[in-house]
């Protein structure tokens, strides 16, 4: 029933971040989880052992709860999807984190609840303070586990969305992965939150569970009440309060059209990514977490073009061990064999500080100590990762990729360390792929212009266009004052892409692209026409890109690229690309428009 308060209210359209596509409507169920406020008290020296015992018991209880949630999710969706809680278990198992809490209890003589909030807050602040959205979202994992430990310490009952019985749209300040995992998909039609981003675990969970969701709505909890009628468009990122009858009719028709288009795209899952005139393009996926393998297969991607290894290093006080890394990389390689799995080595530093590192005071972190520069200076972190990747290579088609390389000096240094790791493993009798392919991300203008110099030392190039565009145009794409200048179709960018492709192919080097450009259906014909061999995209975008590829003629793509290299305006380039895409695959644009 629609609330009486809502009657007579005008329609209100809020724009957020669509993280899981789909159109749903329903009545609001407003969730306001109570934040646990820990008590603070001083301890007598004799009370310290008992306080530490309380902490360890709460940790044990927390681990049991997380394992139970993971097991239930595994049964419902599969082990890969449940592995998202590995990150939470890392926090609960992290010895450095645990020992710091115990040490502070002893030194400060304060109760465990207050010390836990202090220590976990420090780790969360480091993560949330970085500018990289993906890394900053990991702070939410630390906070989620901390709240769970606090509830166990204070014997507080856990709120659960599984208690909801009537169909609804959940609206909350934020939802943790633990919250999302308990959702009954027959009851919760969709959800919307004040906080969140496209890289959060909650967003990944929404995609995996196929629940339409919009996050980052800022104050949506203050704009709605229980029972309000709302509509969610998870594809466009729209949250509509009190939708009009006309709007509901339009969206009813749109939802039906979307279901039809998505059904048609699903039929392409097993079909090759090959143009109408027979030109093959590899269509792979960018992933951060093992649970995304289900999405990869569901949406018809072929292998992993970019495995961001950073997630293994987050939510923990110390870097992961070589063994734990080898287990993760090996499991992904086994699951996808013989399809390739490209593992990018650790890409942190500068504005993306590991919890185990001291905060950097660099004046310009984007031009600072990051990625391969950080790794070469920290062999204690880089060497175990290289060894882990090598060990995983015996389980499948694994490839190594170095990020942010600017010159052959860095590339040669990284390869020397790789060879040393190979020598060590041979001496230890450990099997690995002796001919494991090695590549570099081309994401700095100097690397693009010197691609031919890199060619003798690598097996493939991968164009990281997000940073390449920012560095070439000197534009911060998240700065509202200049973001309008961020133009993927700028002639300077197109010339760099063309140069890298020509330099690569001249030396029999495979060229892929893994930036956001690769996942734009409008630009797919242009990239293929420029000679890109592989498009690596977010799994959920793969069906749309594959549809465009299969309806495209390679000859038309080549002609388009030649024309676009003559245009002076990026707007003209995009308009021409859009015209061709609409001509061959207009239904794909219907999903985006």
TrEMBL record:
Catalytic activity: L-histidyl-[protein] + phosphoenolpyruvate = N(pros)-phospho-L-histidyl-[protein] + pyruvate
Domain PEP-utilising enzyme C-terminal: 264-553
Active-site residues from the entry: 201, 514
Gene Ontology CC terms: cytoplasm
Chain ranges of the PEP-utilising enzyme mobile domain: 165-237
Keyword tags: Coiled coil, Cytoplasm, Kinase, Magnesium, Metal-binding, Phosphotransferase system, Pyruvate, Sugar transport, Transferase, Transport
Cofactor: Mg(2+)
Binding site residues for phosphoenolpyruvate: 308, 344, 466-467, 477
Enzyme Commission no: 2.7.3.9
Coiled coil: 52-118, 404-431
Family: Belongs to the PEP-utilizing enzyme family.
Record protein name field: Phosphoenolpyruvate-protein phosphotransferase
Species, as recorded: Kiritimatiella glycovorans
């Amino acid at each position: 029933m629609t609330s009486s308060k809502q009657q007579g209210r005008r329609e209100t359209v809020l724009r957020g971040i669509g993280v899981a596509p789909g159109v749903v409507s329903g009545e609001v169920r407003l969730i306001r989880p109570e934040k646990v406020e820990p008590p603070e008290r001083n301890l007598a020296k004799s009370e310290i052992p008992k306080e530490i015992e309380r902490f360890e018991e709460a940790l044990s209880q927390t681990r049991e709860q997380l394992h139970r949630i993971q097991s239930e999710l595994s049964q419902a969706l599969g082990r890969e999807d449940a592995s998202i809680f590995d990150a939470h278990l890392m926090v609960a198992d992290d010895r450095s984190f645990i020992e710091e809490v115990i040490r502070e209890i002893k030194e400060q003589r304060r109760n465990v609840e207050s010390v836990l909030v202090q220590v976990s807050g420090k780790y969360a602040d480091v993560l949330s303070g970085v500018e990289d959205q993906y890394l900053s979202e990991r702070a939410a994992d630390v906070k989620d586990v901390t709240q769970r430990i606090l509830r166990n310490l204070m014997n507080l009952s856990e709120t659960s969305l599984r208690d909801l019985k009537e169909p609804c749209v959940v609206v909350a300040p934020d939802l943790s992965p633990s919250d999302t995992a308990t959702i009954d998909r027959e009851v919760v039609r969709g959800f919307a939150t004040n906080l969140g981003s496209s890289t959060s675990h909650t967003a990944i969970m929404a995609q995996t569970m196929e629940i339409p969701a919009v996050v980052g709505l800022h104050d949506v909890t203050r704009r709605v009440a229980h029972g309000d009628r709302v509509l969610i468009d998870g594809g466009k990122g729209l949250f509509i309060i009190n939708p009009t009858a006309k709007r509901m009719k339009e969206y009813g028709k749109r939802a039906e059209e979307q279901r039809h288009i998505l059904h048609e795209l699903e039929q392409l899952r097993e079909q090759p990514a090959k143009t109408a005139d027979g030109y093959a393009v590899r269509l792979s996926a960018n992933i951060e977490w093992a649970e995304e393998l289900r999405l990869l297969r569901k949406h018809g991607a072929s292998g992993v073009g970019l495995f961001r290894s950073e997630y293994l290093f987050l939510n923990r006080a110390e870097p992961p061990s070589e063994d734990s890394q080898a287990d993760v990389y090996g499991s992904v390689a086994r699951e996808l064999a013989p399809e390739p799995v490209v593992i990018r080595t650790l890409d942190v530093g500068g504005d993306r500080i590991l919890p185990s590192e001291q905060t950097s005071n660099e004046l310009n972190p984007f031009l600072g100590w990051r990625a391969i520069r950080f790794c070469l200076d920290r062999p204690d972190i880089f060497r175990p990762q290289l060894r882990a990747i090598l060990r995983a290579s015996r389980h499948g088609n694994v490839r190594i990729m170095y990020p942010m390389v600017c010159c052959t000096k860095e590339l040669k240094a990284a390869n020397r360390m790789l060879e040393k790791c190979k020598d060590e493993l041979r001496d230890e009798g450990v099997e690995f792929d002796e001919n494991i392919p090695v590549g570099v991300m081309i994401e700095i203008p100097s690397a693009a212009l010197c691609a031919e110099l890199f060619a003798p030392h690598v097996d493939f190039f991968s164009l990281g266009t997000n940073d390449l565009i920012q560095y070439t145009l000197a534009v911060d794409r998240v700065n509202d004052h200049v973001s309008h200048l961020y133009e993927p179709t700028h002639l300077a960018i197109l010339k760099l892409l063309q140069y890298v492709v020509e330099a690569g192919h001249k030396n029999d080097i495979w060229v892929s692209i893994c930036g956001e450009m690769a996942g734009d259906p409008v630009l797919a014909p242009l990239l293929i026409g420029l000679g890109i061999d592989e498009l690596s995209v977010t799994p959920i975008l793969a069906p749309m890109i594959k549809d465009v590829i299969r309806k495209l003629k390679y000859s038309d793509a080549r002609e388009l690229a030649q024309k676009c290299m003559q245009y002076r305006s990026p707007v003209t380039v995009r308009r021409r690309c859009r015209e061709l895409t609409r001509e061959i695959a207009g239904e794909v644009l219907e999903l985006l428009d």
